[in-house]
Amino acid sequence: MLPKGQFDIGRMPRFGLLAYKNRFPSRLDSIELKIGGKVENPYTIGSQLGTLIRREQTSDFHCVTTWSATNLNWQGIPFRDFYEQLVVPVARPDKGVKFVNIKCQDGYHSCLLLEDMLRENVMIADQLNGSPLSIANGAPVRLVAPDHYGYKNAKHISEINFHREEIRPKSALNRFLVHPRGRVDLEERGVGLPGWLLRYLYRPLISSTSRQFQNALERHLAK
Ligand SMILES: Nc1nc2c(c(=O)[nH]1)N[C@H]1C(S)=C(S)[C@@H](COP(=O)(O)O)O[C@H]1N2
Ligand SMILES: [Mo]
Which of 25, 63, 89, 139 is most buried, by CB atoms within 10 Å? Predict the structure, then answer.
């Protein structure tokens, strides 16, 4: 059964805020994750990722605009292991950090509660359904947080920063769209309007947004 207000779109489209449709990652074959924010020792994680035990997980993905993609098989590293083994001992986050702000190669960013990031099913994924992540779906690495709406599932991750306070989006529109937690089962789609109402505002935008993202990718790949 899908969560309230969601329908199965039957595939994993390239999707997001239209402002990002023409932005693409520039570094695809090597992984560099800058760890920063309120930490004693900021540093960049690359090959160390290979020292963590990989995991596979099948989960559904829920975009705030009401489409869901089901039965996605992700492979990568559990975020909790990444945090406990590569972040805490080396970067040494301040005691009071509560939020994680993820920055992406396309300029996108998303902020989650550290507590939510440490849930058992949150991953830094590099494979979807047996293949390396495509540009469409977040190459080279993305966040997979199935209990949180798609907009928290940052693609093309480049930086992971730890903070005491939430980093709110800069534009007024995005501040309205983004819920601090974005939990799917509580229908935390946005702030200011109830989740069930946002369903009706978002749903009509899906087909045009997905088409525009796909066309932009095809133009980019043809270059
Ligand atoms: N870097 C980056 N991450 C992003 C986005 C984006 O535009 N850029 N869009 C978000 C939104 S709104 C959704 S629904 C999902 C879509 O993931 P998909 O394109 O793999 O379907 O990515 C999220 N993560
Ligand atoms: Mo989304």
Answer: 63
